[in-house]
Amino acid sequence: MLVEYLVRGVKAGAVAGVAFGLFVALVANPLVGFADDRAHAAGADGDHVADHGGGDGLPAAVTDAVSVASGALWGLFLGAAGFGVAFYLLEPIVPGRAGVDSYVFGLAGFLTVSGAPWLVLPPTVPGVERALDPTMGSLLYVGLVLAGGVACVAGMAAYDRLRPEWSRSAATLAATAPYGLLVVAAAAAPTDGLATATESALEPALASGLVGVVVFGQALVWLLLAAVHARLRDDARPTDRPDGSGLPDGAPAGER
Fold first, then answer.
1. 130 pairs with which residues across the strands?
2. What is the pTM of this model?
3. Closest CA relative to residue 101, chosen from 112, 110, 113, 90
4. Tell me, what DSSP letter sits at residue 196?
5. Is 134 or 236 the better-scoring residue by pLDDT?
6. Which end of the chain has fewer CB atoms < 10 Å from its terminal CB, N or C?
7. d(Cα 254, Cα 256) in Å, to the nearest integer?
8. What is the pLDDT of residues 174-207, one digit of tens each?
């Protein structure tokens, strides 16, 4: 039943969210503070430093607590919406046998929520603002998430349909086509207004490191979601499927 999937998704989200929050508090926040100090030393303006410096801001303990709480909420949302509701509806077409399909779905989630928006709005370092209006930026982000979701679902549906007659490698290649088209469309789209309005005062290596931390953090969330979700399904009981197939939880809809 849907409730079982929701409970499992929430549990996976709680673990992944707390881990992500701790990562932000223990790794990302100190790195941002270090980068801010370097920017200040390089001659960054005082207002920028005041916005991100620790002297006049909240105590580090409060900031870290907020980071952990925010990470937990983010994980709970992804777990409930992604590995709860979405996985319940899409499980029959998710490639892979029990356990493996959790990781495939996690990859699809990462490509939907993070990968697709980053095709047009790549992550930036703290203090760098885009020229794009915030409201338009939010709408663009939501649109890209929807486009990424459609591409991933289309790819999984294509794999499910082609796998019985095609080889695994050929079906996998065909399944990547929808997302590939999204990548091509994003690369060909006009970028007017998407450039940054301010430049970073950080060294390129440090700026790249900060962006890498952002990417790693989001990948970590989805990896942990998939891992915990797969672990929780090991002893799952048979459950009713929305398509009436009667497949036990975690069983493939067909030979994958």
1. 196
2. 0.83
3. 90
4. B
5. 134
6. N
7. 6
8. 999 999 999 999 998 877 667 665 666 677 788 8
